[in-house]
Amino acid sequence: MGFILRHSFPGSSGEIDSRIPCASASKARRMTSFSPLSAIARPTLALRGDSLFGRLSSLPCNRSKIKCNYADATLKDDSKSATIDVVANIRTERVVVLGGSGFVGSAICKAAVSKGIEVVSLSRSGRSTHPGSWVDQVTWMPGDVFYANWDEVLVGATAVISTLGGIGSEEQMQRINGEANVVAVNAAKDFGVPKFILISVHDYNLPTFLLTSGYFTGKRKAESEVLSKYPNSGVVLRPGFIYGKRRVDGFEIPLDLIGELAERILRATENFTKPLSSLPGSDLLLAPPVSVDDVALAVINAVTDDDFFGIFTIEQIKEAAAKVRV
């Protein structure tokens, strides 16, 4: 008598087919679970005998869990032993962060590394100046999206995350917030990258005539491109004011002191201010700020959850971050 165990790691075509000897059903009642860690999927492997668990623990996979029954360690592997079949699909993630050395981009890179995700950053400044050992685990590529060698940047990518955006003249904002992102979306789509995540902006309930500035029209143009090219996997996050410790020319600006205080005040007064939310432009004062760490964790949720796609508001960003944090 033996056991058959089959397990699928979500989202991959890689398989493990293994047979484990068991002397009898009565001697194989213990249950164990473990999570193999790594970053790159391998082709089909054949594992035999008591080496299964040692080898599975070295399998590259960044999000997976196996449960299986196994026999006592003292059992011998012989021709009369029954077998357990293991079939596992392995999925790994490799993300490309556009603007990865910036304020939001660095937070995303750091969060991705902490979750075992392979990270490539493309930005004009190259390597991030943020401290921490996580910086050494990111592949930093200097470059401009308008002139990037996408065959080199996107190889193996499972998602592209764009933090591109900026303030300037109308022409500059249209180019940075809109055209640069459109170029990136089309490059990712042509290369076959399955997911695109865009950091956009909340509209602050502004009157329509104020939303015609290059900043907002550029962002909305980028959003449209993401949602049209990736209707079932594109993600648009619309945070408001993003706070955290921001580094500028080597100096750290503690925006978190302002953001955390504002967030607490707005939460405490929500019942009183909610009736005002319908007033044009009211969100300039009433839209709650978002921690840069919450934005980063919401991005990780988007990377790992295939059911997470579409446009997400400030509150939905916080909810997505809470799922990953838990």
UniProtKB/TrEMBL annotation:
GO terms for molecular function: protein-containing complex binding. One of its GO terms (cellular component) is mitochondrion. InterPro entries: ComplexI_NDUFA9_subunit (IPR051207), NAD(P)-bd_dom (IPR016040), NAD(P)-bd_dom_sf (IPR036291). Residues 99-226 form the NAD(P)-binding domain. This is NAD(P)-binding domain-containing protein.
